[in-house]
DNA sequence: CATCCTTTGAAGAGT
DNA sequence: ACTCTTCAAAGGATG
C-alpha cells in the first residue's frame, strides 16, 4: 500500500533504513579526513578485486572515509553539482553529525543552521499539530520559499535505542553484515496537515537561486501540469487552504516543478488538461488506457543510495576519468557500504524526505503506476555473470588502471 | 534507437 | 510472511 497517509502508521519510513555495514570498526573516523582519494580508491579497487571471493567486506570497516578533497580540475563537477550535494557537504563541514547526543543514533534531525533544507524549520506552532517535535526555528538562511518540514526528535532521544544497534545480520546477497533499520523511523515525519504546503523539497531542485536541480529536467522544463499539485480532492481536504498554494500549472510552490515529473512531452504525449491521480481512474478500459498514456510520468522518488549516487557520481567520474555508469555504480556501491552510519543516515533521511514530499505531491501515486513502463529487462540472476563478459572482473579491469596503486 | 549494464533501496506482485 | 520483480539515475556499450 502506497504510503499516502502518513497519518497512519508507518508512513514512508523505510523499515530497512540505516544499514550498518561496518560493524565495530565504525568509529574509525573520517575527521581525520582525507583519507585521500588514493586510499579510498585503492580500497575500492581491492575490494572490487576481492569481491568475488569474499563479499563480507570486512575491509570496508577500514576505509570509512569517503571524500577526498575536490580537485581543482573538478570545476565541471562543481558546476554540475547540485544544491543537494552542497547541502550535504555543508552538513558535514558544519559538524552536523559531529556531536551526536545519541551515540548509536547520531542521526539527522539535528538542524544545521547552514543547511538550507534542514534548517529554517519553522513551521508555525499551529502547523505542528500533534506531532511532537520541538522544531528549531532558524532565522537565518531561511529561504522564503523553503520553509521546513518538521521532524521529530523524539525517536532520537536516548530513551529509544535504535534497533539497528542490534546484532547485525548478513546481507543475503552480499554477505555484508547489516543491521536492521529502525522501523520506528517512519513516524518521524508527521507532517502536520498545514505544513504540507510548506514542504520544501529536501533537495536542490527546489532551490531556485541555485539554479541546479536535483533531477535532470527535460528541455523546456516541466511545463505540464501534474495531478497532485493540481489540487486534487485528497490534497485539499488534507491541507489547510491557506497553506496550499495553488499552482495552476503544476509547479511546485516555488514555481519549480517537481523533478519526479517527467514532462509528457518527453516521455509521453502531451496532455492538455488535468490529470487525476492514477488511482482515480475508473473509466472504460480503452479510455482509461488513453488517459493513462496522457498522464505525465511520475517517477519514483529516489532512495538513499540513488541520492548518494547522484551526488557522488560526478566525483567518481572525475577521479576515475571513467564514464561507464555500470562501473561507476559498482564503485559507488562499494563506497556506499564504506560509509559510516552517520553518513548513510543523511541519505536515508533525505530519501525519506523525498518520499514524503513525493507522497504529498502525488497522493494517489503508486509505484505500481510505473510498472511496465520500462522495457522489461530480464536479466536472470546475475550470479553467473561474473567471470565473463561484463562481470566484476572486467569492471575491475576497466577501473584498475585508473587507480595508480 | 532501444536496451543492457550496474548499484541499493522502496514498494508492488506473487507465492 | 516471505521472496521476487520492477524502477528509480546514468552514460557508455551493444544489438
From TrEMBL:
Q: Tell me the keywords, alphabetical order.
A: Activator, DNA-binding, Nucleus, Repressor, Transcription, Transcription regulation, Wnt signaling pathway
Q: Which spans does this entry mark as compositional bias, Basic and acidic residues?
A: 19-45, 63-77
Q: What range(s) does the HMG box domain occupy?
A: 298-366
Where do Gly residues bias regions lie?
1-11
Answer whether the UniProt record assigns the keyword Oxidoreductase to this protein: no
Q: Cite the PROSITE patterns for this sequence.
A: HMG_BOX_2 (PS50118)
Q: Which PANTHER family match?
A: TRANSCRIPTION FACTOR 7 FAMILY MEMBER, TRANSCRIPTION FACTOR 7-LIKE 1
Q: What is this protein called?
A: HMG box domain-containing protein
Gene name as annotated? TCF7L1
Amino acid at each position: 500500500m502506497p504510503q499516502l497517509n502518513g497519518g497512519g502508521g508507518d508512513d514512508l519510513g523505510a523499515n530497512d533504513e540505516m544499514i550498518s555495514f561496518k560493524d565495530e570498526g565504525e568509529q574509525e573516523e573520517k575527521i581525520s579526513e582525507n583519507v585521500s582519494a588514493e586510499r579510498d580508491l585503492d580500497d575500492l579497487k581491492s575490494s572490487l578485486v576481492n569481491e568475488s571471493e569474499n563479499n563480507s567486506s570486512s575491509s570496508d570497516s577500514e576505509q570509512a572515509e569517503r571524500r577526498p578533497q575536490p580537485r581543482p580540475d573538478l570545476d565541471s563537477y562543481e558546476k554540475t553539482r547540485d544544491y543537494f550535494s552542497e547541502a550535504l557537504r555543508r552538513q558535514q563541514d558544519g559538524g552536523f553529525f559531529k556531536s551526536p547526543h545519541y551515540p548509536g543514533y547520531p542521526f539527522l534531525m539535528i538542524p544545521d543552521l547552514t543547511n538550507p533544507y534542514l534548517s529554517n524549520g519553522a513551521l508555525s506552532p499551529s502547523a505542528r499539530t500533534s506531532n511532537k517535535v520541538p522544531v528549531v526555528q532558524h532565522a537565518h538562511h531561511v529561504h522564503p520559499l523553503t520553509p521546513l518540514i518538521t521532524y521529530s526528535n523524539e525517536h532520537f532521544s536516548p530513551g529509544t535505542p535504535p534497533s539497528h544497534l542490534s546484532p547485525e545480520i548478513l546481507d543475503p546477497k552480499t554477505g555484508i553484515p547489516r543491521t536492521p533499520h529502525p522501523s520506528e523511523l517512519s513516524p518521524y515525519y508527521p507532517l502536520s496537515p498545514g505544513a504540507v504546503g510548506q514542504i520544501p523539497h529536501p533537495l536542490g531542485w527546489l532551490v531556485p537561486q541555485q539554479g541546479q536541480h536535483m533531477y535532470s529536467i527535460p528541455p523546456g522544463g516541466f511545463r505540464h501540469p501534474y495531478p497532485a499539485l493540481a489540487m486534487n480532492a485528497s490534497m485539499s481536504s488534507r491541507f489547510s487552504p491557506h497553506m496550499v498554494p495553488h499552482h495552476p500549472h503544476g509547479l511546485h510552490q516555488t514555481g519549480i516543478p517537481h523533478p519526479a515529473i517527467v514532462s509528457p512531452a518527453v516521455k509521453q504525449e502531451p496532455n492538455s488538461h488535468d490529470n487525476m491521480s492514477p488511482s482515480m481512474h475508473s473509466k472504460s478500459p480503452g479510455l482509461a488506457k488513453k488517459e493513462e498514456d496522457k498522464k505525465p510520468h511520475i517517477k519514483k522518488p529516489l532512495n538513499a543510495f540513488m541520492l548518494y549516487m547522484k551526488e557522488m557520481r560526478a566525483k567518481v567520474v572525475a577521479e576515475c576519468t571513467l564514464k561507464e555508469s555500470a562501473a561507476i555504480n559498482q564503485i559507488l556501491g562499494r563506497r556506499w557500504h564504506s560509509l559510516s552510519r552517520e553518513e548513510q543516515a543523511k541519505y536515508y533521511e533525505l530519501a525519506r524526505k523525498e518520499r514524503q514530499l513525493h507522497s504529498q505531491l502525488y497522493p494517489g501515486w503508486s509505484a505500481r503506476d510505473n510498472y511496465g513502463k520500462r522495457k522489461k529487462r530480464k536479466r536472470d540472476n546475475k550470479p553467473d555473470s561474473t567471470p565473463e563478459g561484463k562481470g566484476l572482473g572486467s569492471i575491475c579491469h576497466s577501473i584498475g588502471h585508473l587507480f595508480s596503486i
